[in-house]
Fold this sequence. Notes:
By secondary structure, this protein is α/β, with parallel strands linked by helices. The protein has helices at residues 3-15, 18-25, 29-43, 59-85, 99-116, 129-138, 202-210, 225-233, 244-247, 249-252, 281-300, and strands at residues 48-51, 54-57, 91-97, 120-126, 143-147, 157-172, 190-193, 217-221, 238-242, 255-257, 264-274. It folds into three domains: 3-81, Winged helix-like DNA-binding domain superfamily/Winged helix DNA-binding domain (Arc Repressor Mutant, subunit A, Orthogonal Bundle), CATH 1.10.10.10; 89-163 and 268-300, Periplasmic binding protein-like II (D-Maltodextrin-Binding Protein, domain 2); 165-265, Periplasmic binding protein-like II (D-Maltodextrin-Binding Protein, domain 2, 3-Layer(aba) Sandwich). The strands form two sheets. Strands 3, 4, 5, 6, 7, 8, 9, 10 and 11 form a nine-stranded mixed β-sheet that branches. Strands 1-2 form a two-stranded antiparallel ribbon.
Amino acid sequence: MKFNQLRDFVAVAENGSLRGAARALGLAQPAITRSIQELEHSLGTQLFIREARGVRMTPIGEEFLVRAMTILGEVRRAREAVHQQQDGVEGELVVGLSIAGHLGLFSEALRPFRRRYPKVRLRLIEGFLPTLEGDLRNGLVDIYVGPVPEGLHPPDLHVTKLFDNQRVVIGRKGHPLSGVRRLQDLEGAEWLTTSITHEAVDELAQVFAEEGLPPPQMAAQCQSALSILTVLMNSDILAMVPVEWVQTPMLSGLLEAFQLEHPFAAPPLVMVHRTGIGLTPAGEHFSHLIQRAAQKVDRHA
Length: 301
């Protein structure tokens, strides 16, 4: 089994055809076909089913894809680690960030990281751990920064707690309900959810239940910061979000936090990467910068 065979196999899987893989890799299609045939022969099994419009993976091929992507990711990391230790500055760092991770920590780490590693490409993925967990394991994501659902601490992932966090109720500037002081007074409002739980409504509904209130009226479910901001700015819908939403200067002029009597706890912000696999020097530096930014948050809490 050769490295180029794994590379070609992943390219075919991602592009859905031999022709697409050849185009993506800048190789001739017969070379890709021969590479896949040799890989299947060495494994003693069929990885793809050839169809009129391309290929589809067999069940064995789907399982092998996970391992192949992990191997390619580790080769990339090893190459970049050696190069960076020799004062090289190239490579790629893939970071998964929740919205709170973006607003509260990444914004502090970006400039110093770029000064130290100006030619390392940052690839940022907005999301939560439940959606990025598989990519962390497979080596497609190097680091995750954000909240972790309660009880989710997989043994093969290293979790570093950064700080405890709080949530606030927010709405657009000039919201007609911005003067209320109790959650009970918002019982009739419409809400959007940004939950990190698998059941998107559960987290907000639990807060209402703890106050002896019926479940909130859900009007929208958003999975990106842009969607949340668009909904909030163009309606009277409310959201319960990490406090970083109103602490960042970028959004403070657009949104306001309701000054309710009781604070609402949020899952702590953490940093996650694979156990047993060291980060590249660029990854280690980024990790250090995130922890330094978290310490500043803790001091000002």
